[in-house]
Fold this protein.
Amino acid sequence: MLSILVQELSLERNLIMAVDTDKKNLFLHLATLMLVLMMIITTLLWWFVSPRLHEISEFLAKLSLTALRLFYLILIFSIILVYIICYTGKNILIARFAMRAIIRILYPITFNLGILFGISRDAIRESFTHFNNAFIRAVINKYDPEEILILLPHCLQNTACRIRVTVDVRNCAACGRCDIGELCELSKKYNIHMAIATGGTLARKIIVERRPKFIIAVACGRDMVEGLTEVFPIPVYGILNRQPEGPCINTRVSVEKIKTVLTDILQEHAEETR
Ligand code: SF4
C-alpha cells in the first residue's frame, strides 16, 4: 500500500515537474539563436576592422581574435552543458560555471534582443524561470528543513487583511481568504522557515540573515528573474504567482506545487511524515 502511495506521489510529482519545466524551451532556443547571431555579427565586425588592427599591431590583432574565440568557446560550451543538464536531468561537473555564463552574459542579451524580435518580456522571464527550475532540479541535493527558505511576496496577502504578516508570517489567522494560511500550515508541517518580503531589499536582508542553502521563491516574472540571478549560486526554485486581479494585488500561488518541491527535496522527511 505504502509503495503504491509513493509511486502515485512520484508520478504526480513528475507530472507537475514536467509542466513546470516545459516552457524552458523558448529561452533555451532563443539564447542559442542569439549566440549564433552574436557570433555572426562580431565575426563580420572583426573581419572589417582586422586590416586596421594588423596595421596598428600584429599582436593586437592576434590578441583580439584569441579573446573573441575564447569568449565564444565558453558560451558555446556553456549552452551545450545546460542543454544536456536540462534535458537529461543529470548534474555535470562545472554545471554552475556554465549557468553563471548563461545568467551573466547570455540572459541580458537574449532578453533585450528577444524584445526587439517582438517576444513579450513576460514570456521570456517565464521561460527563463522554467529553464532555471529545470537546471536547479538537476544539480540540487537533499536538504534539511533548516537549510530551506520559502520566500513569498507581500501581494499574496488579501488586501482586506489587517494582520501584519510581514513582521511574522505566523501572525496569519488562516482565514482562507488568501493562500498564506495554507502555506503557514505547510511550513509548520515541514518545519521550514517562511518569510514574506515587501520588496527586493527586505528579501536580500532575509537571505543574508537566514543564509539558506535552498530557496523556494514565489514572485511575478520580473521580481523572480531579478532575484534568482542576483542570489546565484544559491539555488532558487521559482514559482510564478497567478494574478487573477492584475499585478501586485491579491495574487495566488499553487500551494500544491510548493508541497511537491518540498517533498522532492525532503523526500525522506516527507515519507516519514506520510
Ligand atoms: S489567510 Fe492569513 S494573511 Fe491571508 S487574509 Fe487570512 S489572515 Fe490574512
About this structure: Strands lie at 148-153, 193-197, 214-219, 236-240. The longest helix spans residues 24-56. Residues 2-135 form one domain.
